[in-house]
Amino acid sequence: MPPKNLLQLALRGAAALGFSIAAGTAFAEAKRRSADVSDPFEVSASPAGNYLAALIAGADRDTLAAATYSREALRFNPRNRELIERAFVSSLSNGDMPQSFALGERLAKADPKNGIVHLALGVRAFKAKQFAGARAEIIKGGGGRQRDLTVSLLTAWSYAGTGDFRRALETLDKIKDERLSGFRDYHMGLIADLAKNTPEAAKRLKAAYEAEKTGLRVVDAYARFQARRGERDDAKAIYQAFDLLAPRHPLVLAALADLAAGKPLETNVPNAAAGAGEVFYQLGSLGSQQNDSFAAMLYLRMSLFLAPDNALATITLADIYERLKQYERAIDVYETVPARSPLRGNADIQTGLILEAMGKSDDALKHLEALAKANPGDVEGLTALGNLQRARKQFAESGETYSKVIAAIERPARSDWVTYYFRGIAYERSKQWPKAEADFKKALELSPDQPMALNYLGYSWVDQGLNLDDSFKLLRRAVDLRPNDGYIIDSLGWAHYRLGQYDAALRELEKAIELKPGDPVINDHLGDVYWRVGRRLEAQFQWNHARDLKPEPDDLVNILKKIAGGLEEEKTPAAAEAQPKKDGG
């Protein structure tokens, strides 16, 4: 059930709009249907039910349900401004552009200062190449710094649409706030490029790139510009620099492949409508990063209306639905990524991961296996399959899949440590320790300060009584890097325990249990050390707690033995010290 105050607010709102509420049945019906709505929707016969369902769906960011129920509620009271606005916004966020434009025209008459309405109507004018009309719409509405920036950018693109590039550049050059210089230079560069003003485009795009070398859209625009003006080696260097920061991004790999093949790199912004779409994409991306999902949806829908081939905008929109756990909508959006886009593979991978999140594990596995079969050299697809197999404890299979990933990597880079680390886990859990040890060492060779790899290798050595001096070095380094990680502190405590250093073990394991009280392994370890220091009742409590936390089957057998009979007497010297110091092979 929703919070009581939401229910009261909804009931008051419905009454104010002229709806008659019969007890709570209309609300209950609306809530049920908004929570699990079929497509097409089975709308309520009650206007109040539709209104309340729209209200709840809007709060849940269920754009399809909100748009459907809002339109149904509006049919009952077609002149109500609040209902028009709700239907307009929900239709726009759902991507029903013709409906939102029609509602926007009605709302503009009732609320002439509604900024989002004028933006939407301006978008329609951009798409129709009515650039003067677009400019007239976007200058209306509210103020504010972001609003002023948006108006300036879109106004400039409207001038570019009419061929008045001088006024377009002058409009943007008036932006003096250095915090906004990246937006200014990027769009000035794009407009100058469209005007074939190569010196100005080079100056502005380079400035935008120097200010934001981690921004993929800026990097891509500058590299494409350099390639078109004959500076293909420079374009390659720009992409390669980005690849070091974010390895193997599909758009970068595709561009590098085109450069190597001598193919041209066309601009992503070939006209004024696409330029306006770029403005909305940047606003939507920013909103997504700031978890302002509703505003991000509105901007991204307008961006995709103007530039439907911008796969980055599509991926960003789908990701928002995914984060909102609207999984079916996310899949629907991912499926709209153009088949020719380098990002199509990513969209297909995310679909598989969403199926797993929905509890459709068999479908998820079949989906990712089909992708891997169709694209045997696709590192991302194989990695996703390996991760799913590992999560499902199919360790032998995941080890084989990670091996295919490694075989597809020509020269392992620093970022590839994680693949060796994951394969090491798969080997260790499938009882292939020599292979696992080699992979953990390789992961640390590629990236020496990875706490997870340091911890896993150090803990594994300790647990087997191997290389204890080296394991302490690894574990202490891991603790230095992650001082509040309960799992890593547990590993260090367990190393002390294996050496018979029970006071030190107790100190570390009590820290670990405070950080991770619900972990069965840490509770089991703490029980062992309590037993060794003579605190037998506390040991029994920890073991019983570990048993109840659903440990691994092999661990459960040992825990039950300890609950029944405690620990065996200590060996002298300490068990760990009696172990020969092997090289880990």
Describe this structure in words.
The model is unreliable at 1-40, 142-146 and 572-585 (pLDDT under 50). The chain has helices at residues 4-16, 25-35, 47-59, 63-76, 81-93, 97-110, 115-127, 131-138, 145-161, 165-173, 181-194, 198-211, 216-228, 232-245, 250-260, 272-289, 293-306, 311-323, 327-334, 344-357, 361-374, 379-391, 395-408, 417-429, 433-446, 451-464, 468-481, 486-498, 502-515, 520-532, 536-548, 553-565, 575-578. It is elongated and about 90 Å long. With 585 residues, it is mostly helical. Among the domains are: 4-111, no CATH class; 458-585, Tetratricopeptide repeat domain (Serine Threonine Protein Phosphatase 5, Tetratricopeptide repeat, Alpha Horseshoe), CATH 1.25.40.
